[in-house]
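Figure 2 data, in text form.
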Amino acid sequence: MLLKTPNILVVGDLMLDHYILGDCSRISPEAPVQVVEVKKEQNRLGGACNVAHNLISLGAKVELCGVIGEDRAGEELLSQAKELGIGITHIYQDSQRQTTQKSRVLVSNQQILRVDREDKGEVSSEVLSAMFERIVKEIESFDGVILSDYGKGVLSEKMTKELIALANQHQKIILCDPKGSDYSKYKNATLLTPNKKEAKEATGIEINNPQTLLLALNFLKTQCNLAYPLITLSEDGIGILENEELKIFPTLAQEVYDVTGAGDTVIASLCFSLSQGKSIEEACKFANSAAAVVVAKVGSATATQEEIYLFSCDNGVESKILSSPKDLPQNANIVFTNGCFDILHKGHVSYLQKAKELGDILVVGLNSDRSIKALKGEERPINPQEDRAYLLASLECVDFVIIFDELTPYELIKEISPNILVKGADYEGKEVVGSEFAKEVRLLEFVEGKSTTNIIKKIKG
């Protein structure tokens, strides 16, 4: 079965990212600064809101909890969150505070200036108490909790400790993006996501090799009693301590345009994966792929499961050959077809290209050697399943290949529940196996005269 859609609570400092994009062709006569001719302005969700946006992009259900002001920036933040499908019933408006807004000036996709408007004072105890009481009532409905701490007053020491204790009491994973040099308030969290600079401030250890990384991870484990001591390593990936052993998951980024919000993507991806019951190793690999997607974009960006999985496929043909449907991206428009594909020919490729055009992800169910022998006799297949899977996965139009051992792909289609099930036009008027599990069945014409059987006959003379 496909993995469940996790329901995540994000608590933290809510921000609005304001972007001013323009061109520059001269220096100001008033001072040695660039003169930017504004071409476009846009607002995006930032801070804890960007974490929530990342989770929504991955396909999670999300409730956002924090404080904003009764101002234009706050209204824009609420409007964008609501439009994205982020739950906003836990967001409190405080007339005594202003909504945090960060304005960035970009010229040719390069940031040259940032202007912050914010209130760093602690949120009133009355508002925090109301927040916590509401979370207590709904904690059972969540699969995971993220604390996104930017030091703007929501995650006070008392609030943070209470939320971690509450999550542990109800056996919910709780991930924290920490702030400051004293991590004691995050004690007993599932994991923290400090980068190397932040980890140095908290541990006093300069991380410049595996040995110092191991020391820093052990320090965090001892100080904070974490289930998974973890440090993000920028261009070097993610380092974790598991069973007293250091493991480093290297980054997958190929192009880096803007690292803004990459940390939000990492913590969102980790929580999403762990909430689905995946291992910490699987979660780290998934987070690395997600981060690689967003740093290739400009500004606080997000990554969809489709983008992440397609990016992963660029790292080798073998990565497109899956052992189970559970590894498929969720919430994508999946097209499924199946066959033996014994001797790949023009008819096959044309058929698969047309199938790919019908959706976002093309999944090919491939008959195993054993099932082909049962269907076509002991002389088939000509090519073993490993070779056939590799050739199919080498095609640009094929996103994933899954080998199945049964005579029909009924169970595989049931597990995937594709948007579109594709078969050849020769199925016109016939029952298509697994059609009850697809939203739509489409029949495609074959290239006339092209078939594996004809090729084999020609070879035999």
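Caption note: The chain has two domains: 7-315, 325-460.
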